From TrEMBL:
Residues 1-26 form the signal peptide. One of its GO terms (cellular component) is membrane. It comes from Solimonas marina. Belongs to the bacterial solute-binding protein 3 family. Residues 45-267 form the Solute-binding protein family 3/N-terminal domain. This is Transporter substrate-binding domain-containing protein. Residues 45-267 form the Ionotropic glutamate receptor C-terminal domain.
Amino acid sequence: MRKIPVTMFRALIAVLLLAAAPSVWASDQALWEHSTLNEVLKRGELRVGLEAGYMPFEMRDKNGRIIGFDVDLARLMARYLGVKLTLVNTQWDGIIPALLTGKFDLLMGGMSMTPERNLQVNFVDPYVTIGQTVLIRKDLIGKITSYDQLNDPKYTIATKLGTTGDIAARKYLANAKIKAFETEAEATLEVRSGRADAFVYDLPYNAVYVARYPGQVGILRQTFTEEPLAWAVRKGDPDFINWLDNFLRYIKADGSYDALYHKWFEGTAWLHNVSE
């Protein structure tokens, strides 16, 4: 078999690449035209989905406004995009379907990345890592020192339905009685009132709750899971994911992220302004 000269081979490759270039460009252009990022820029509005009630990520102040770590990040994001921000408060058990049906552009509700959720949505790079902890009723302070002591039928564990805390409780405390509630407020009230022995939830929320109600509840601060939290977008949108990943890298590099993290996770000045 005769060999094709190297120069002829290179020329052939060049011709094929040139022929393919217009279709590749057209494909990229079509992706951009349908990108959420392009839609946000044309609309002049970024719609962010979350559920107010997850301290310190998003909750309502005494005037009914939604505030928190995610909210400040969303405001900063909208500023860099040059668009206005609209917060879409959505019940947690319907928040992924709401994203998929286009009720908002981006899910920023402190969502843990799980393989099951990743089948439905795509995640941006994690922006914070948390773990599950246990809030305990005041009568158990000093008596319960580890989460696994609660793995007993005599204990009632409150959880929030559909969260990784609910999943963790059913996995690690399977012998206890599990009571799932629609909201954090309902579940934590069960513990404060003594109708439940413990509440399994993310460390930031539980730590803030104890600071808010000192002496009324206790906390086992040692986390027993490790969960990266990330923003979620609809599948098939590489341009939006690329922008969000780079936005996150940029604000971590310029100090903006650290300032907001300190404000919401290490400071407590904002607590007096949170509604009951």
